[in-house]
Amino acid sequence: MSDSSYTPPRVWTWKAGNGGRFANINRPVAGPTHEQALPVGRHPLQLYSLGTPNGVKVTVMLEELLAAGHAGAEYDAWLIRINEGDQFGSGFVDINPNSKIPALLDRSAQPPIRVFESGAILLYLAEKFGAFLPTEPAARAEVLSWLFWQMGSAPFLGGGFGHFYAYAPMKIEYAIDRYAMETKRQLDVLDRRLAQTRFVAGDDYTIADMAIWPWYGQLVLGDLYGAAEFLQVQDYTQVLRWAREIAAREPVRRGRRVNRTFGDPALQLPERHDASDFDQAPAQG
Ligand SMILES: N[C@@H](CCC(=O)N[C@@H](CS)C(=O)NCC(=O)O)C(=O)O
Predict the structure, then answer these.
(1) Which residue spans of the chain are classified as CATH 1.20.1050.10?
(2) Strand blocks (E) in 58-97
(3) Is 117 a pocket residue for ligand 1 (Cβ < 6 Å)?
(4) Residue 182 predicted with pLDDT over 60
(5) Where in the chain is the domain with CATH 3.40.30.10?
(6) Which of these, 201, 108, 215, 106, lies nearest to 153 by C-alpha position?
(7) Chosen CATH of 137-248 out of 2.60.40.420, 1.20.1050.10, 1.10.10.10, 3.30.750.24
(8) What is the CA radius of gyration of the chain?
(9) What integer pLDDT is reported at residue 25 of this predicted model?
(10) What pLDDT does residue 4 have?
(11) What's the CATH architecture for 31-132+257-285?
(12) pLDDT above 60 for 138
C-alpha cells in the first residue's frame, strides 16, 4: 500500500495545474471559456472530434456506413484539440454542453440536429441509416445491452486504469491495483462472451463492436497505455481473435486514421473532408 500521507481537508479546493497529464484542461466547472465558432464543411454530417478511442468509434461507424453504400453518411471531420482547450470554445459547447469529443451535427435536418456522447451518436447513425443495429427485439436488446455495457465500463479502463497506470504524476499502488483488477474482470467478461459468438452481440458486426473495439480491442492489440504485458492480454484469446478480425476491416483501418494526431505520421489524417483525403497520406500500417 502506498501514499497514506494525504488527509482530505474539510472542503475541497481547486489547485489548478496539479501536475497530472491533463492538468492544463481539467477544471471543476462547465461552460465555455472563450468565443470560438465551429467550422462547417460541405457534407450533411459535421463531426468535431479527435482520434482517441471515443472518437474512433464514430469515424469507424461513418467509414463502415460509406463502405456499405450509404452515401448520406459523407462527413467532414474537424479536429478538436482537447489539449489546447478547443472543447471549451462556445461553438463546441453549443453542440456538447459536456465539452468532450466526439460531437456530431446533422445538417441534413432543419434545424440541424446535434448529438453528443459516442454511444448516442452510434445509435443515432444506426437508426438514421438502418444499419449495424438489428430491428428484431431480442437481437436489438443484445446490441444495446453491450453498447451500454461499454459506456459504463470503459471509464474504469480509461479514467481509472489508464489514468493511474500511464498518466498520473505518481504511481499509486492502491489505485493501479484496483483498476487493473476491474479491467481484467471486464476483459474476462468479453472473453467469455466471445467464446460463444463471433461478434459481441452475436453473428453480426454491430455498433456494439464499434463501441467496444477502440477500447478493449486496441488494449489487447497493445495500442493503449503500453499495458499489454502488465495486464497479460494474451490470456484473453477470444478477445484477441475478435480484435484482430475487426482491425483488418478496411473501414476500421480508415476510421482509425481520421482525426489522429499522434503515432506514426503515415497513419494520421487530422481532418477528413473527402474520401480521397486518405490517398494523400498513404497508410503503411
Ligand atoms: N462518455 C463520453 C466520453 C467522451 C470523452 O471522455 N472524451 C474525452 C476524450 S476521449 C474528452 O473529450 N476529453 C476532454 C476533456 O475532458 O476536457 C463519450 O463516450 O462520448
Answers:
(1) 137-248
(2) 75-79
(3) yes
(4) yes
(5) 31-132+257-285
(6) 215
(7) 1.20.1050.10
(8) 19
(9) 83
(10) 67
(11) 3-Layer(aba) Sandwich (3.40)
(12) yes
Q: How far is the CA of 1 from the centre of ligand 1 (A)?
A: 30
Q: Is 58 in the pocket of ligand 1 (CB under 6 A)?
A: no
Nearest atom within ligand 1 for CA of residue 102: 20
Q: What is the mean pLDDT of the chain?
A: 95
CB of 82 closer than 6 A to ligand 1? yes
Confidence of residue 16 (pLDDT cuts 50, 70, 90): confident
Mutate to test the pocket of ligand 1, among 56, 100, 157 (most ligand atoms within 8 A of CB): 100
Output the pLDDT for position 1: 47
Distance CA 99, CA 107 (A): 20
Question: What dihedral do alpha carbons 171, 177, 183, 187 form, nearest 10°?
Answer: 130
Which of 22, 24, 54 to probe ligand 1 with, by most ligand atoms within 8 A of CB? 54
pLDDT confidence of residue 48: 98
Q: Is the pLDDT of residue 281 over 50?
A: yes
Are 38 and 48 contacting, i.e. CB atoms less than 8 angstroms apart?
yes
| Rounded Cα distance, 51 and 80, in Å | 10
- From CA 275, how far away is CA 52, in angstroms rounded? 21
User: pLDDT tier at 211 (50, 70, 90 boundaries)?
Assistant: very high
Atom 11 of ligand 1, nearest CA residue: 100
Strands 45-49 and 75-79: parallel
125 touches 73 (CB < 8 A): yes
What is d(CA 62, CA 197) in angstroms, rounded to the nearest whole number? Answer: 25
Record the pTM.
0.95
Read off the pLDDT of residues 55-96 as tens digits, 9 standing for 90 and up. Answer: 999 999 999 999 999 999 999 999 999 999 999 999 999 999
